[in-house]
Amino acid sequence: MSRVKPYSMSCPISRSLDLLGNRWAVHVLRELHAGPASFAQIRAGLPGIASNMLSVRLSELCAAGLIAKSHRLYTLTERGLSTRAILFELARFGRHQPVPDAPADPENGAHRAVILAGAIERAAGPLDDIRAEILLDGEPFSLTVTGGRAALQSGTMPLAPVQIAFDWADVEAVARGDLRVANFAAEREITAEDPLQVAALLDLLQKAMDIYGGFK
């Protein structure tokens, strides 16, 4: 399968599109922002992609230094992690577009976690230091925030200082301005050893969801 013909323009936007504008390229990155994944796991998250197409995209992204492969797992490099801001802005724009009548993909907590991670990183300050387990639509994700960087990856966090559960519908409600994080947090079970960590997490989530909603 031949590569799509590049734009070959000097504009930085065009140069980005030469790499990320190919069909499925951004989707492959989205899958890996939720954590390392095998070829089969990536394909499972992308209904409709052919195996040879996925192989080509993975090879291109590896060659570009955005992802790396080790022991049958693909993972984002430091440069690949920098694409989170791009994915987040696409999500903010896309949430105002109509949903397809018959979506090809099932509801996916990992895809939503990537969006939430982008919002959290945008909201995080250099002094924020938070570790928590988030149950998003019942699916566990480990959140680590330090030095203004955020990681939200699939899986439980052993001995998490804070554990909180909420649904994506809560995120959208806060993003619309219909709800505050403190409101749904009061109705959810929060497990915590340190009340200060709870307060810091709720404050960060409120800022993040405000950013996702376009309030900041």
Structure description:
This protein is an alpha+beta fold and 216 residues long. Helix content is 47%, strand content 19%. The strands form two sheets. The protein has a five-stranded mixed beta sheet with strand order 6-5-4-7-8. A hairpin with a 2-residue loop joins strand 2 (67-70) and strand 3 (73-76). It is globular and about 55 Å long. It starts with 11 loop residues before the first helix and ends with a helix.
Poorly predicted tracts of residues: none
| General form | globular
SSE topology string: HHEHHEEHHHEEEEHHEH
Average pLDDT number:
91
Task: Summarize this entry quickly.
Helices cover 47% and strands 19% of the residues.
Short descriptors:
216 residues, alpha+beta, five-stranded mixed sheet, three-stranded antiparallel sheet, globular
What is the topology?
Layout: H1 12-20, H2 25-33, E1 37-38, H3 39-44, H4 51-63, E2 67-70, E3 73-76, H5 78-81, H6 84-94, H7 109-123, E4 129-136, E5 139-146, E6 149-154, E7 162-166, H8 168-176, H9 181-187, E8 190-192, H10 195-213
Parallel strand pairs: 4-7
Antiparallel strand pairs: 1-3, 2-3, 4-5, 5-6, 7-8
Helix pairs in contact: 6-7, 7-10, 8-10
